Amino acid sequence: MRERARLTALALSAVLVTASWATSACGRDTPAVPGVQTYAPDDRGEPLSLAGQTLDGGHLDVAQLRGTVVVVNNWASWCAPCRDEMPALVAASRAHPEIAVVGVNVRDERAAATAFAADLGIHFPVIADADGSILRSIPGVPPAALPSTVILDQQGRIAARVIGPTNPDQLEELIASATVVSPRGLEPTASPL
C-alpha cells in the first residue's frame, strides 16, 4: 500500500512537471522543443511584432525591416552557449549584407551586454530585453530559451526557429529557406542596418 502511494505521488509529480513545462510556453502554437523547426510559407502565420530600445540607446522595430530576411537571436552575456554561437551570427551578418541580424539581449545588465557585444564584434543592432518580455512574446520559443533564434521571411513571418545554439552551416540553410517572393511582390533587399 505504501509503495503504491509513493508511485502515485511520483506519477502525479511527473504530470505536474510536464504540465508546467507545456504551459510555460503559454499561448504558443507549437510545442517548445530543443532543435530546429522550419515552416512552409503557407504555415508561417502573422508577422512577428518585435520592437524595443537598443543597447546604444536607439529604437528598433523589426517591422521596419520588411522586405528583408531577418535573423533574430536571443542571448545573454552570462550564457556560455550564446558566446559560443555568436561568431557564426557575426559572420553570417557580414557574409549576407542582403539580410538583417538583430540581437535581443535578455535579462542582462546593460554594461555586461555592451562589453559582450564589444568583445565579440557584434556590429548589428541589439534590443535590450531586461525583463524577458520580448523573448516571452516570440511564438514557439520558451520564455527562458537562451540561446534561441528565429528567422523571419521578407514578410516578417517566422520561417524557422532554433531552440539552442546554431552553427554556420545551419544558419546558411535556414537563411536560404526563409527567402521567398511574397504574393505582394516584396523582393529581398539590402539590409538598412
Question: Can you walk me through this structure?
Answer:
- The protein has 193 residues and is an alpha/beta fold.
- It has a single domain (31-178), classed as Glutaredoxin (3-Layer(aba) Sandwich).
- The chain has 5 helices and 8 strands; from the N terminus they run H-E-E-E-E-H-E-H-E-H-E-E-H.
- The strands form 2 sheets. The protein has a 6-stranded mixed beta sheet with strand order 1-8-7-4-5-6. A two-stranded antiparallel sheet has the order 2-3.
- Strand 7 and strand 8 form a beta hairpin.
- 38% of the residues are buried.
Number of domains: 1
Sum up the overall morphology in one term.
globular
CATH class: Alpha Beta
The average pLDDT score comes to 83
CATH architecture type? 3-Layer(aba) Sandwich
Order of helices and strands: HEEEEHEHEHEEH
In CATH, the homologous superfamily goes by the name Glutaredoxin
**Regarding quaternary structure, how should these chains be classified?**
single chain
- Tell me the number of helical segments per DSSP (H or I, 4 or more residues long): 5
Share in β-strands: 15-25%
| Major sheet summary line | 6 strands, mixed
Output the radius of gyration: 18 Å
Offer a concise description of the structure:
This protein is of the alpha/beta class. 33% of the residues lie in helices and 20% in strands.
Write the layout of secondary structure elements.
Blueprint: H1 2-23, E1 35-38, E2 51-53, E3 59-61, E4 70-75, H2 80-95, E5 100-106, H3 110-119, E6 126-129, H4 133-136, E7 148-152, E8 158-163, H5 168-178
Parallel strand pairs: 4-5, 5-6
Antiparallel strand pairs: 1-8, 2-3, 4-7, 7-8
